[in-house]
From TrEMBL:
Accessory subunit of the mitochondrial membrane respiratory chain NADH dehydrogenase (Complex I), that is believed to be not involved in catalysis. Complex I functions in the transfer of electrons from NADH to the respiratory chain. The immediate electron acceptor for the enzyme is believed to be ubiquinone. It is a peripheral membrane protein. GO terms for cellular component: mitochondrial inner membrane. Keywords: Acetylation, Electron transport, Membrane, Mitochondrion, Mitochondrion inner membrane, Phosphoprotein, Respiratory chain, Transport. It comes from the Eukaryota. Mammalian complex I is composed of 45 different subunits. Residues 18-71 form the Complex 1 LYR protein domain. Pfam families: Complex1_LYR. Belongs to the complex I LYR family. This is NADH dehydrogenase [ubiquinone] 1 beta subcomplex subunit 9. PANTHER family: NADH DEHYDROGENASE [UBIQUINONE] 1 BETA SUBCOMPLEX SUBUNIT 9 (PTHR12868:SF0), NADH-UBIQUINONE OXIDOREDUCTASE B22 SUBUNIT (PTHR12868). CDD domains: Complex1_LYR_NDUFB9_LYRM3.
Length: 116
């Protein structure tokens, strides 16, 4: 394998990774805009069609420009208040019941104490 083809393959692999990451981010963000599944599925199909329409492009410079344009569009239309699972960091239930501070003992045998 020559040095030119190795660099070509490395660049193509990096582009594929960027496209994959962009698609997954956009798909997850689509669910933020359309919270009900019956509204989400048509939007997800339209997003997939946009990506599938350009899957046969071979020119590396064109692909880089398309990825950059897609990232700009994604950042422009990203949801300002994305949905966060309640128990995840940033969710409404995160650390609702934090661990007790050191020095406080929790009795798990409540009601079964020794009555000597």
């Amino acid at each position: 394998m020559s040095l030119g083809s190795a660099s070509y393959l490395a660049r193509r692999a990096a582009q594929k990774e960027r496209v994959r990451i962009l698609y997954r981010r956009a798909l997850k963000d689509t669910l933020n805009w359309a919270v009900h599944r019956h509204l989400f599925y048509p939007d997800a199909d339209a997003l997939r069609e946009k990506f599938e329409a350009n899957k046969d492009v071979q020119d590396l410079e064109t692909i880089d420009r398309m990825i950059a344009a897609g990232e700009v569009t994604y950042n422009k239309w990203r949801h300002p208040d994305p949905y966060v699972v309640p128990w995840a960091p940033g969710g409404s239930k995160f650390h609702r019941n934090p661990t007790p501070p050191s020095g406080i003992e929790i009795l798990y045998d409540y009601g079964r104490e020794d009555n000597d």
